[in-house]
Amino acid sequence: MADEKDPRFVPIKVEDGFVIMPDRWKVDFLASMGELSRFFIEMKENARLMGMKCPRCGSVYCWPRSWCHDCYVDTEWVEMSGKGKVTVFGQVEVSLNDIKKDVPFIQGGVHLEGARYVLVSCIREIAFEDLYTGMPVRAEFLPPEERTGRIRDFYFVPDE
Known about the structure:
- It is a single chain.
- The chain is built from 1 helix and 11 strands, in the order βββαββββββββ.
- The protein is mainly beta.
- It has one domain.
- A 5-stranded antiparallel sheet has the order 9-8-7-10-11, with no helix packed on it.
- A hairpin with a 1-residue loop joins β2 and β3.
- The longest helix has 10 residues, at 37-46.
């Protein structure tokens, strides 16, 4: 059970449209997600994955990037389908922190439909030996009362 005083399990706060994210790194601190706050807000409040699209070349970034890596212009928010294909995966046997204590678990890279880069998250509801590169998957979200606005608010499951 998570320590109730551990800031990593406290939901995000939204102030003036920006996410304030409690976290821990030897000392407790608040990390502002700045102009990328919408990504975390949408996960927590609406169970949606958001990316950012370049209006010039059409590149889509999820993890969001506020500017295009090719055109150097500001990007615009777009909703991602949450569907993609597994590109790489591994089974984690040892937990090095208290955020994810349940081992073993599967973590993998998923190339979301339309995205330029891979997004890394947990993969659930499948045995490691049944998972394969290229497997279609979709994002699933924790129930609203369990979401905290963190990357662990969602995970991937097979979509076959």
